[in-house]
DNA sequence: ATAATTTGACCACT
DNA sequence: AGTGGTCAAATTAT
């Protein structure tokens, strides 16, 4: 069959990379299938709990991410190329669109990406972001800032985030991450959110039974950010009838609960508080692929019952 | 000189 | 029509 090297040479490097990603993902899926057929993958509980399976799922989903990112950037490049060939200037990849305001804003909004909301005392999360907008938000004291990954045009990384200072805590920022980082930016520091206790999944409640929660580090993560998260909530954006102010109230309540319940393990510098609350939003159901913050999708099964027959 | 931010306009959604 | 997300020229920072 068609191996990667046998593809027509007109394929760009990015297209080849997309194919390679898909092939890798297929390989991981095959391995996963083998594991599923192997009874030793199941514990006495009958649940899948092998870390290997989690790892494979992670890899598979990441493969999709990478492929999508690569393909998206290829598309952009092709468009700009064809436009250059025809007559117009290229706006993507080149500098700026010179005063052709008529065609301005031919962009799509809101891809079907996942979003997470993190409440933190800092806007820093270890990734390199580029601010591209700011907006006054109705009924909000502070404006909302919009950031995209600095690798957007480099590597087609589609990750964005929105940061807004919270009304009450004044020191706290609500950060909504949209989309996964697909860039290979190895200079980034520790991610902002690490789930250390699987028991808190699904219940959306805080569970800091162990006040000496070790600052879990990523495989090769640094310690200067020392992120500690205590709660993650999953929700569906479409089914959230609450107004922005309601959300804020909810968060401040959560924040109060958390503060009152023992965040003293925080060893941050003065004024620095770790992330205390994160909510996970899916714009499309049935996909627990986000692993950027160390989230372990498999552990949703405690309450969410991941079904492996993907309806839809 | 280049990169990042600011800011008003444009546009998608509801 | 109102609100919020994105674009891109102008401005500021490095």
Structure, explained:
Residues 118-181 form the WRKY domain. The protein is an alpha+beta fold and 312 residues long. The protein has two domains: 4-90; 115-302, no CATH class. It has helices at 13-37, 51-86, 152-155, 244-260, and strands spanning 115-120, 129-135, 144-149, 160-165, 173-178, 232-236, 277-282. Strands 2-3-4-5-1-7-6 form a seven-stranded mixed β-sheet. The radius of gyration is 21 Å and the shape is elongated. The protein binds a DNA duplex (14 and 14 nucleotides) through strand 2 and strand 3.
Q: How is the topology of this model organized?
A:
Layout: H1 13-37, H2 51-86, E1 115-120, E2 129-135, E3 144-149, H3 152-155, E4 160-165, E5 173-178, E6 232-236, H4 244-260, E7 277-282
Parallel strand pairs: 6-7
Antiparallel strand pairs: 1-5, 1-7, 2-3, 3-4, 4-5
This protein binds a DNA duplex (14 and 14 nucleotides) through β2 and β3.
Domain WRKY: 118-181
Protein name: WRKY domain-containing protein
Region (Disordered): 79-108
Quick rundown:
By secondary structure, the chain is an alpha+beta fold. It has helices at residues 13-37, 51-86, 152-155, 244-260; strands spanning 115-120, 129-135, 144-149, 160-165, 173-178, 232-236, 277-282.
Features of the shown structure:
312 residues; alpha+beta; 2 domains; 7 strands; 26% helix; 13% strand; elongated; disordered C terminus; DNA-binding; WRKY_dom; nucleus; WRKY domain-containing protein; WRKY_dom_sf
